[in-house]
Design a protein that fits this description.
- The protein is an alpha+beta fold.
- The protein is 27% helix and 14% strand.
- Helix 1 packs across helix 2 (56-66).
- The protein starts with 30 loop residues before the first strand and ends in an 11-residue tail after the last strand.
Length: 104
């Protein structure tokens, strides 16, 4: 759950691409998947469940304004973790700092 009493700080992460990433494995039965059209509902549910948004409507508005205009990037940069039953249980998006993100 997100602790909203901590002030928000905008930051940018960078990585030296000449260094290899460490090998990390998910628990048995869990897997990564990239965004495909229709996954926005799962993204909205996950982000709302951790307190990023107060409700699904707010999450939907954010998704529409910040991600929908960039479908090609979305399919390369938004990932999910799927549990053994196939349910999406976590998400992470590596977005570009140069995109004009619009806060809701």
């Amino acid at each position: 759950m997100i602790d909203k009493t901590i002030p928000y700080v905008k930051f940018q992460m960078e990585r030296n691409t000449s260094k290899e990433l460490p090998d990390r494995q998910l628990l048995v039965g869990y897997q990564f998947s990239f965004y495909t059209p229709g996954d926005e509902r799962d993204w909205q549910a996950i982000e709302t469940s951790v307190g990023e948004f107060d409700n699904l409507s707010e999450a939907q508005g954010y998704f529409q304004k910040n991600f929908v205009p960039y479908p090609d990037e979305l399919e390369k940069r938004m990932t999910f973790v799927t549990d053994p039953s196939g349910k999406k249980v976590a998400t992470c998006t590596a977005w570009l700092a140069s995109f004009p993100l619009i806060a809701v």
